[in-house]
Amino acid sequence: MNSKQPIYSQVTPIEYQLLLKLREQNPAQNPPKLRLTFGERIADQVATVMGSWRFIIVQSCFLAVWVILNVVAVDRHWDPYPFILLNLMLSFQAAYAAPIIMMSQNRQAAIDRKEAKHDYEINMKAELEIELLHDKIMLLKEEEIAELIKLVQKQNQQMEQLKAFLIQR
To answer: Distance between CA atoms of 16 and 4, rounded to whole angstroms?
Structure first.
């Protein structure tokens, strides 16, 4: 396809230039590529593990066993009530888990923004392509109608000539 804008186009020159640029980029065939750093992969793994039912169940069982052993133990209470060591361990876990999960969420938000931009480009290209197709169809219709008008005029001329010929006889 040439780079000239169609004569009867409803697409503005700016939109047409955007379409040409999007055609060169070919966004539908070139999705954004993800290259994760080591830290990003670790953050994703931590968020995946800590955000799972398996982790919640295992941690709940661990906490229940900890509390039961410390309450029931006859002579060996390594962390007696109010379970200060357990609270320290859970605080330590939360202090490290929260920022790591936030890193993963921030990275995922950035990926979502890139994908949204990519989807927007694809949709924009599709919209402009459809508009150009609409313009081409309208141009073909106009040409066909012009051709039909010429044929009807020619037929009317022939009818007038035939009528004049018949009247002369």
So the answer is: 9
